[in-house]
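WARN retry 2 of 3 for item q-0093 after timeout on previous attempt; input resubmitted unchanged.
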Amino acid sequence: MPHEFRTRLYGVVREAGRREIGGVLMAEQIEPGSFRLVDFSVDSRTGGAAHFVRSVEHHQEALETFFERTGADYGRFNYLGEWHSHPNHLPVPSCEDAASMRDLVGGERDIPFAVLLIVRASRRGLMCSAKLFDDGADAAEVALQPE
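OK item q-0093 returned
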């Protein structure tokens, strides 16, 4: 995860305090199966103390802006998945989080795969976990590499 990406994410999560916030992840494909996180959207309005559901309209605008900025090169730059915070719990997907991702992948939007990043701000920095949801497969841990 690029340092500036991590720093910005830590800042928005700290600012939200004990409310869950989240958004979509946008990435650059480095090679098949390897991605570099480039940007993320933030919806800080719809979260509560233990629940976050993103606003589709808000994040669609963020994706459109991202695609304009990257020259609509969808083979290289694209949507990678979702993120949200767990300020009051460990940064691991809940059963509800996993079910939501399974509905998203291969379901409502015909997305073949997506990553779910869960984060929590602590005094030591940003705690993270990431899972890959691939259509027809069990969720798998994603290795987050520092840049």
